[in-house]
Structure formats: structure tokens, C-alpha cells
């Protein structure tokens, strides 16, 4: 992202650059300000650089002069900004003053240009009455809340089959500058269980999903038939191991209050469920929830919601905990040599779930191209490991080179691992099977040890012979 303010031809200008990709609240991102050119002969160090976030002065690194090949100097300065969701309406300003300038050089960038706020999703249901009959219609509303930028794609699915896609649905601007939208799909009630899901792809990031299940439980009441819809819901977003998530079951239309709800994780009953049975009109409504502690190995775990009415099985459904689990990756970077001029730098991303990650190589905050296609491996515990190789020309001389592997996972703040590129590493590198420069010394040591063994054996044999002769 680059903003540049030009003056007349030959006159100094000012430019402001930010990160090349959008990033999430909580991340610290760099902004670089450059002003010039100034004639080195007439230019003194009597200048200052001021950074402002909105109207407040913002701290920055010390400014410095950078000469070019034409006898000119450029003023440079860097400021780091930790983004928040409210920064959709904020801006960053760089101002350079010098006594030789008629007026300060000034440029401004909106932080919304580098900010991405991930939406939250939920589905609500609305019926025409307390009793829902077969072939009635239920309004399912997908709420997509507080996101930025405004563009996204929304898809409705029924039992994992696409039923409608909206490329860019109309969104409403919130007071904090983010956007929200609602979209309603009308579903027909049937006795069979059906899952409806709202999928959202925002700013080319991994998709987000909210889902609800509708099912009609048929029972006779006179000549008519009615159904009892239910909802079985978990959290809207994934959580890390060590987090307790809440699962909730709700249903209505029970003829009596003799309803029991049992929750089991991997066939073991979960403690302390909270179940409420409320009388409403001529029927009873049931709400039950339980807290489930997520662990690293819950990729293959499941929870069963078991409902009985008058000691008879009324409802049972299995929930896979993998849809609520997020295992953050660990990121490491190391280097090895491939030839006299190329260094192989590897980024190892270990034990993460789900599989969707975005990996970027950076050098001095600039994106590097040319990395090989990432290689994924599924671990025995269901998590994933990724390796990505980047070949770097080590013969390029200059200041200390710092390579960064940045990994974005499930809309969380990116994880970074840095490596100071060592040009000495490839000179000391030896392929497997190579003897290396220390082999002659090793042979010499073995030769000396062998000579000593021969001398000892010779002395021992002479001593024994003399003893026998005596």
C-alpha cells in the first residue's frame, strides 16, 4: 500500500507505505515514511518527522538520512501501529518539517486500507406460531455481524448441498465503520432431519459457517399432525484447547414435563448440565446446555445429546467437536545449503487444525515470491503439519538480511518466525556421506592409536617369552 504526494518537478515529495496485505485487529503493522530528494550540499540535519494517529501524536523510530547516487538525501522514518476494530475510521499521518521547506511535507493513509475485521455469524429461526405443523415454513435468518471491508459472498446450504449464493449482498454500515447484514431463507418443515448452513467467504479468507437443524417429531393429536422443531447449537467461532465451549439444545411442544436430557463426550457422561423445562400455553419448552472442555486431541472426539420423553428415546444426535476446535500452529524457520550461491530456507508449521493456513515469506516487510508449493501432512492425532521451502541467493551482499515466515490461521493474529540469513552456513555445509576437511586428522589419530597398540602387544609378548625361558 503506497501513498505519494508530489510537488513541482525537481522538488521534494513525500510517500507513505503500509503492509502489502490486510491484517486483523491486534496485529502490529509497520508504516514507512520517505521524503526527498534534498541536495546533500545545502541540506542540514535540522529537520523533524512527526507521526499522528488521528489527531494524537504517535511514537516512531528515529528518523535517518539515506543518500542516493546523485548527491541527494532522503529522510526515512518507520512507525508501528497496533490495529483495533475501531481503526476502520482512523488514519495515520506522516509530516516532515525543515527550515528550507516553505511548508511541511505531509501525507495521510486511512487505516481501513490495511485492516480486515472478520465477521461473526449466527442463524435465528422465526415461526408463525408456537406449534409448527408439517409443510409450514420457517424463516431462517443468517446474521453476519461487524466485518470490514464490505465485500463478501454468502451461500445457503441444505444437507451440504448448495441452494443459494449471493455474490455481494447488501450490507449496512455500523457506527464503528464496520458492516453487518442479514439474509433470510424460508424452509419448509418436514418430519425428516435437515441441516441448514450459512457459509460466508470474506476478503478471500477461509470460509465461516453457522448451522441449524430442523426436524419434525411427529405425534398424533386428534386428526391432525404436528412437529416439534429443535435447535442444537454450539459456539459461532472455533476455540483453542483449554477453552470450555457451551452446547445448547432447545425444543418445544412437549405434552408433559417428563423430559430428561443427557450429554455424553466419547461415551462418558458430562457433568453439571443445565436443563430448564418451562410451561407455555398447553405444552412444555425444554432448554439444556453443557460446558465441554476442549483438548488437543478432540479432532476425533464427539458429543451425544440424548433426549428422553416419558422414559422413551425422543431425540439423539452426535456432534463432532472438530467443528469447534482450533489448534494454533507452532512456526519455526531454519536454513541449509544447496550450492555455493543458494541457501534453502524452510518454514515448518506444526500441529495445527483445521488445515486452512496462509503462509507468506517476508524480507524487510516486503513479500518474497518463488517459494515452492506447501507440502501438507496429516498427523495421527488429526492435526496437520506443513513445510514450505524458499531458495535464497546468498551471494547478494548488503546489510543483515532477516527473513520472516508469517502464518495466518483461522482469522487469528499471524504467527511469525524470523531467521537472520547466514552466508557462512553454506560454506560449512557438507552433503551426507562427505568426508569433510577433518578426515585427514581423524586418519592420523587412528594411525597413532594403532601404533601404540602394536607397541604394547610387542612389549607384552617379549615379557612372556623371557619369563618362559627362565
From TrEMBL:
Q: Which SMART domains match?
A: IGc1
Which residues are in the Ig-like domain?
12-112, 119-213, 329-422
Ranges annotated as biased composition (Polar residues): 17-26
What are the GO cellular component annotations?
Answer: plasma membrane
Q: Which UniProt keywords apply?
A: Disulfide bond, Glycoprotein, Immunoglobulin domain, Membrane, Transmembrane, Transmembrane helix
Q: Where is this region: Disordered?
A: 1-26
TM region positions = 441-465
The protein's matches in PANTHER family, at most eight in alphabetical order, are given as: SIGNAL-REGULATORY PROTEIN BETA
Which protein are we looking at?
Ig-like domain-containing protein
